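Worked example 3. Consider a protein that binds IPE.
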Amino acid sequence: MSLKEQIVAEKLPRHIAVIMDGNGRWAKQKGKLRVFGHKSGVASVRETVEACAELGVENLTLYAFSTENWNRPKFEIDALMELLVITINKEIKTLKKNDIRLLAIGNLGALPKRCNSELQSAIEKTKTHKRMNLILALSYSSRWEITQAMKNIAEEIQRKTLKAEDITEELISSYLTTSQIPDPELLIRTSGEHRISNFMLWQMAYAELYFTPKLWPDFRKEDLYAAILDFQQRERRFGKISEQIKA
Ligand code: IPE
Ligand code: IPE
Ligand code: MG
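Given these inputs, the predicted complex is written out as structure tokens:
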């Protein structure tokens, strides 16, 4: 049986999040500029989106640019922003054809104007699509997001539209940029790094973490299937004991 055939449809993660890492090292290995690695990573994005949609995954979040990535050399940032605009324009047809809704989380106001407006227009054009949500995390970091949420909650308390005793886990979740999306059940990080890099810290509380040494531009459908199969073999106990889960 192929890897894809071994996947149990009823046990698919409802939300897969991916830290797409290793573009720079991939390019360096080939004696090319880092930007070449980013460009080559677009094919992996396409494969991952397509594979998730085919399998029936409801939500896929791709960490494309972190708050901390603003500290990279200007040349690389400019190239990444340009690539984002080009990719959105190129892929919008595919999103339409496959009934995929584009969403974005992060400090989108920090993106270059043209980048943000292309993004908003693609979000608008796909807003009725139902098959899968493709969420791009752009200028995103979890601490930024949690800080924003705290500010908004504090403001409501000041205005007396909220009381301290109203603050619950659900309320906090509803103030995050992911309020409409279930928490990720599977996090994949490529490139062999074993860290979260400020990604969805709150939402990741019970996610299964999967690390692969593959560099992002080498990531293909089969790699996604392998990650999902690994996920499906795990026992998610949520604090309970094994016997309770099996009962
Ligand atoms: C991930 O690849 C893409 C972004 C963070 C934008 P990197 O650019 O981090 O590649 P490495 O980790 O340096 O190899
Ligand atoms: C994390 O990758 C951010 C994205 C994939 C967008 P980085 O390459 O920026 O993370 P660190 O710096 O290695 O932790
Ligand atoms: Mg990296």
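Take a moment to read the result before moving on. The mean pLDDT is 98. The chain is about 45% helix and 15% strand.
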